[in-house]
Amino acid sequence: MKIRVLDTTLRDGEQTPGISLTASEKLRIATKLDDIGVNIIEAGSAITSSGEKEAIKKITSAGLNAEICSFARAVRVDVDAALDTDVDSVHLVVPTSDLHIEHKLNKTREEVLNQAMDACQYALDHGLIVELSAEDSTRSDMDFLKKVFSEGIDIGANRICACDTVGMLTPEKSYDFYSQLATLGAPLSVHCHNDFGLAVANTLSGIRGGASEFHCTVNGIGERAGNAALEEIIVSLNTLYGKDKDYVSVVDDNYEFETDINIQEIYSTSKLVSRLTGVYLQANKAIVGENAFAHESGIHADGVIKNAATYEPITPELVGHKRKFVMGKHIGTKGLRNNLSELGIKPTDEECDEIFKRVKSLGDMGKCVTDVDLQAIADNLLELERDQKIKLEEFTIVSGNKAIPTASVKLNIDDEEILEAGVGLGPVDAAIVAIKKGIVDFADVELEEYHVDAITGGTDALIDVVVKLRLGDKIISARSTQPDIIDASVEAYLSGVNRLLEDN
Ligand code: MN
After folding, report:
1. Among the listed ranges 58-67, 164-173, 456-465, which one has the minimum average pLDDT value?
2. CA 190 to ligand 1 centroid distance, Å
3. 49, 23 in Cβ contact below 8 A?
């Protein structure tokens, strides 16, 4: 059975505390959602502000394939605002629980029903597709809820949607609830919130109950604990409920659901949204987290190298992600050998044992071991003297009280002296800007991630900086630990750049 996807990253997702997207950022996300096959994009709520209206207009005039939708309360002014933006449809929301009707709207059920039908009719008369949606539906009187939907369907609402606004469903209740609504005679949507961490489970149950569309956001962003996460639902439908099941299930599960989503673009979509919203993911986030396909434990890494299916339910390639072996105190010799051979190092058994001991002792100190650390340990042990292409001769930083953070650097690249200066938001930024300008002819290196950690307590703490750098499609991480944050940042950055240049 085909299941349609309504993505509300740009509406419910943008209601996440602290997120505010510009119109062009919204367009970039909408374009990506369209590219990956989202059927309906809820682009915003047109009534919110003139800026929001402009953003929605930008999206409706971009020639996307998806149906573009605006959120609207069940009042004519909201429908008018939506009409101004040339959307295809409205997600027309009417509160159905007595709690919302009495305490939020100060109205009666009858008044709310009449108002909803008036707005629905008005939107239909103006050529909009209407998805009639019940807010707080899961705490509503079931007879009243069905009455709202049935009357809406009678006047021509195209779809109905029941929102679990504060995440009160369980998977069992969700199955029963959506099963009952699926018989009303219009395509049904499931909209779940994650207050109890059950949004995805409840969405899947709703689909099993008969919903033919689900609402979701990329990375599960949204108010409070967020919405059901697009990537988790899509991959579950594909792998756990799909027709390509290639595992033996413990229970009979002869149901299949398909979507139009291009699964291989799931990870890049997640990255785009986290970058533009500034909401970064926990490492252990399912499917798209940095650790979703990371293996540290020796037993696991060994199993994955022999046959990835031993400790991976899906391959990282399926969603466009990457497998990685993290080096720390749980690493085994097989995982270590694998990492070394990726660096082009083939030690003897004895050498490998010695490298292994040193990595373990770093791990015991609570450190993860980066590619460059491993390289340094191996170089040291195998007495490989590496030629550093880029050497730092000196640098000066000016920052502080009203001064624009400015850095000058003297670099030695292939015995040629290069002087550069840069300004930045802060001293570290200024130093990196200056170095980037100095090396631009040799390497166009992108700084993907930057982490700072104070190792001990006070302001005299040792500062541990780890950077992740990209050159083309090669990514490596490098670290430096020093008392000065700028020294550490510059050293980590340069040692990473030198490593990237060695292989090119
Ligand atoms: Mn919602």
Report:
1. 456-465
2. 10
3. no
